[in-house]
Write a structure and sequence with these properties.
Elements lengths: L7 E5 L5 E6 L5 H10 L2 H8 L8 H8 L6 E9 L6 E12 L2 E11 L8 H15 L4 E7 L3 H9 L3 E5 L3 E7 L5 H11 L18
Parallel strand pairs: 5-6
Antiparallel strand pairs: 1-2, 2-3, 3-4, 4-5, 6-8, 7-8
The structure holds coenzyme A.
The site of coenzyme A has 20 residues, from helix 2, strand 5, helix 4 and helix 6.
């Protein structure tokens, strides 16, 4: 298995920045807490779909203590200025669904300062490979604003709608050999979905 416990990959972004992708570890808890405090209200809201302003200890523990099979998470990290520690750039995780062992909920977050530089792509590509290697065939996601444009955008991304409520749409994206549908989903998440009705009140979501 290429994405087993010792997985570690070094990348250079288009702008020359060096990034390492590896599994999350218990020791990442403090950096996860710190990086979370740098996220804009919009990024937090788009990740969690509600206003999460702090990560409490139980959330940090859940996010960092993964089993590497049903719950897998990768971090993208860079070096700190003194080269002594890692700085978190982003995290991607999947959690296998109880009762649907070939499906998993997936989420990706990149810190605002590093967005739109290719980190999301790196993380999602690695996550998809790890999922396939562990028997997962589709990622499940959720978006707010169950209105016409969202449905249309999801259809363009090749997503299959599973559930729709007045507040949100739950969809699946197949993990085919190529990552095109995933890339489309990421682009939508990075750009257009956040600009749709339903997310316009983001300025009200600043930490209190
Ligand atoms: C979605 C997210 C993870 C993307 O991460 P990223 O590192 O910025 O993504 P990348 O730089 O790899 O870009 C991915 C694609 O989105 C496009 N993109 C990125 N930021 C964009 C922006 N602000 N506007 C338009 N397009 C954008 C890129 O051009 C790229 O498109 P391509 O595939 O055609 O090249 C990041 O924006 C984020 O953390 N958002 C908040 C949380 C979230 O929405 N997560 C997804 C749902 S869980």
């Amino acid at each position: 298995m290429r994405t087993g416990p010792g997985f570690l990959e070094h990348h250079v972004l288009a702008d020359g920045a060096k990034v390492t992708v590896r599994h999350i570890a218990d020791g990442d808890a403090d950096e996860l807490r710190r990086a979370f405090t740098t996220l804009s209200p919009e990024t937090r809201y788009r990740r969690f779909l509600w206003d999460v302003s702090t990560l409490d200890d139980s959330m940090v523990r859940y996010f960092t203590h993964v089993d590497g099979h049903d719950h897998v998470a990768f971090v993208a990290v860079g070096d700190s200025p003194d080269m002594k520690s890692d700085v978190g750039y982003g995290v991607a995780r999947f959690v296998r669904l109880a009762g649907e062992p070939d499906a998993a909920e997936a989420a990706v977050t990149v810190v605002d300062a590093l967005q739109n530089r290719g980190v999301g792509h790196l993380l999602l590509h690695t996550l998809a490979e790890a999922a396939r290697e562990r028997g997962i065939r589709r990622f499940r996601g959720e978006v707010l604003a169950a209105n016409g444009p969202v449905r249309q955008l999801l259809a363009e991304a090749g997503a299959v709608v599973q559930r729709e409520t007045p507040e949100s749409i739950t969809f699946d994206i197949a993990l085919d050999r190529d990552d095109l549908p995933l890339a489309r989903w990421l682009r939508l998440a990075a750009d257009r979905l956040s600009a749709l009705p339903g997310l316009h009140a983001l300025h009200d979501l600043a930490p209190r």
